[in-house]
């Protein structure tokens, strides 16, 4: 992500010594603490974070998108999930213990702390970067064992991080109706009607993508995510936006937000500095009537949550903005479709180019990813990548969230599988696509496992299910073929995708790990990406972004209606990797129909753009399979 | 269940008037309450309950196994799930509102109370029959809206229930090693080692089936469930059993429990009256050291849970007894297999008999169920039924937990589908099987939907999945074929089954509704019972009890191992109802292999028992399908 930390371990002896010193330093805390928790996120609980917020990476070296470090007087441990086991073990030195989440024998953070701490210990954490629900659980678990969790206002990592970057404040981009389908004023009105429905006086927006979506603004404060650092507090007649005030000096932004000439008083935005949210929220809470309620996400920071007195606080798992944002309107769907067509053009070009270049032995993981970025950047309204490209050859493919670095960079060849998981931000939409290819002759085992993954991909993509089904109920469909052969993969099957917003967004997804996901409904967009990983050999993943659409099966039980998925990603799936004997006729039909759509839709755009070589490649790769 | 309430509505005007009077009567409560909650269960949170505990049925008339009634000054509402919508609407008069759980528009009990109660209301409930976790949720939700939940010590239903039956106290049955595989002393030692592992000083057992399993005792206090009213408190050197003392006068019971000659001091059982558990637990808690912890299920009664001071209380979702009981040992598995063979013999006889008798027009739902019971009772070690037989013809089959009553009793015919869901308790095991049959010519639609249900049944039964997979991840497999045609069923797919114990037991199952189920492991036993219900026309369900066994697929990812199911139920599935064109070759092979096992195993037993007509029927019904 934000940093180019190598895959060789970071040496942390001295840093840990300094951190442990800070844990005893009365400059920061009244009494020494026996453990310090370093979560992954920023004050907005973002998944992707700005360099100034990469504190967990700074202390332990591991730079994956998910992980929590805990340092005690004697121990240092880091928890991450199956996507990152290999990467984390390579990036951390032996001062650190890797805690593999999801394995039965792995202690939870709470249980581990209880097992290593001396009696009556104090555990510290920065209240801005721990979510309120996590604070609550951790605090309860520690209390039950006689320990206590305390908020350390000065971040102890920042205290020892000498060259910590400053917080970014990039230029804001305003989005018109042609991209958003709804004005920010419409969105505000809809939000307030949800608030009125539940008798809520105030709503505190803390998630960066929700704020960007609400105001139809984008930024580039965080790499890959077109968001900007801000908070918002919305009342029935008040809108407060907390953001670096310098950013609001631009006339287009002032006009977009109607800062100088608000149309109505209740749509007049009061702006204030980013840092003032804490005191302003205190002021709002001080003026609350006895029955007034304030909505805040239960994933918001503990610091901000606790400003709201408990009697007035109404924490919610998913905010109305999160829910409204997830269901794309017609304009957004059209934009996402356009973005995916452009993205497919770039990938067809890339694969045609790779076929020619690989035999020369000059293409590496890095140069292939660079070429993909270059080709995407030629497309209209390209903004940047939507996440660091996972461009991996052979054994590197088994590192699920691998990112090529000079010292790990392998050359693409005719002998090893190539996995490319990449995507881009266009002003009209966000893409995320994985294709796994072999440019020589795949082995029978590689084809076999690829085909199981394909069967899982199709099982989800073609699934028909009742309206209101939660995505987690579809996860096993993606695994069925792998399970039958004793295989599996240690990650979820899909995540929500934003529209020119975060490539990972809630509240829906397809994963065995969540149960609190919101029901799927038409207009939601998720990824479908089963995989198979053979450590030390190869990785396989087939990922499309798919749109939830109404289905019309034969019957309609209790008039509930049915849903299915429509692929937005239209990039051929390499037939060479498929053992067609393992497919059912229905699955073969699905592949052929998918390739027909690729040829029709992407072919037309390649034709329009006059990209002949990619067109030839597309035609060849979309021949029907028998 | 316990009562023969008719399917015509119970008239509740007078009862509601009396209850509302009691809600204002200072004889029972210091201040009037504005609402009174009547949960379904007893003080042990049993699913099936004794007649003296059928309070919810008494007040509203609905006698299904799940449902909660709430009465306010003006309203009366009853919540139940999809299995019971039809039945509840028929059994309740129009003083009651049926709250259909699982439908989007249905308010939760909390939200409904908040919507109907005047400000600052008080809601009462008997703390013995509400579980601690439910109390907590309800109390929190009400508090957030300015209301309060209070414990009403005198049960207000009992106060107005003039002819309330007394609590049963039946004879206890002792089970030897040949049935249990483990002595109660072994089980106690295993329990204590789990307690030592987690540094727990005391364990309070409140679930009746856990207590029966622990002591290798059975009773018949509750119809269909071979349990007896008791509590147990286990310390590292102490065992206290709370039970009607009269029951312990029997020499075989005294000897079994070693009441007069304990082998070791820590295995000496102190007995005390059932009602004294409250004061005895108070005494135990009064003597606790500062760090001592007491385990109690979070589903135990609020009354008993709150005896344990919060600092000492360690609530758990599943007790170690619940987990140990779920994984059957070799003796129990052997017993369950034997029980299922005997049960299949009785059913083959029944179906052969039905074929002969139905054309005469003399067989009804009730007489068919009676015949099934009579045939089962001829089998060795038969104790009784494991639940009320669901014997339903045509439209009655769409009432998922239907029980035939004189006024609803239909005659079996050649024109309507017959669904029989029934099971028995044998000393060696518990059975639960559903077969759906047509004795004439099923329509194309009946065959089509039956075949989708069969495909779902097979998809679960034949599923191969990684060791440690939770059952809820398999639920969608059972629905896939129905979903593809726009159909579904509104109940879970499977439940745990006890061994000569409750036919429904935790902690595992196969349902979209639970997420907190424990991972499946070899030795667990669950049901596999998808269905399809067409209101007013017919019901279809195909249910086997299946054993979790290791599977040996081609590969073994991360040495995790794989599991699958082995059917214990061996009763032919009616081929006449199957549209074989809709089955895959794999599914046809599954059916033929299943029928081969039925013929081989049940055939041998029919031969041994000399039951010729059933044998002929079995041979004919197990012909391979093409």
UniProtKB/TrEMBL annotation, chains A, B:
Molecular-function GO term, any one: metalloaminopeptidase activity
Catalyzed reactions per annotation: Release of any N-terminal amino acid, including proline, that is linked to proline, even from a dipeptide or tripeptide
Main location: cytoplasm
Keyword Magnesium: no
Top-level taxon in the UniProt lineage: Eukaryota
Required cofactor names: Mn(2+)
UniProt cross-references to Pfam families, sorted A to Z: Creatinase_N (PF01321), Creatinase_N_2 (PF16189), Peptidase_M24 (PF00557), Peptidase_M24_C (PF16188)
BP-aspect Gene Ontology terms: proteolysis
Residue ranges annotated for the Peptidase M24 C-terminal domain, each copy included: 563-625
Span of domain Peptidase M24: 335-548
GO annotation, cellular component aspect: cytoplasm
Record keywords: Acetylation, Aminopeptidase, Cytoplasm, Hydrolase, Manganese, Metal-binding, Metalloprotease, Protease
All residue ranges annotated as the Creatinase N-terminal domain in the record: 19-153
Family under the similarity heading: Belongs to the peptidase M24B family.
Entry protein name: Xaa-Pro aminopeptidase 1
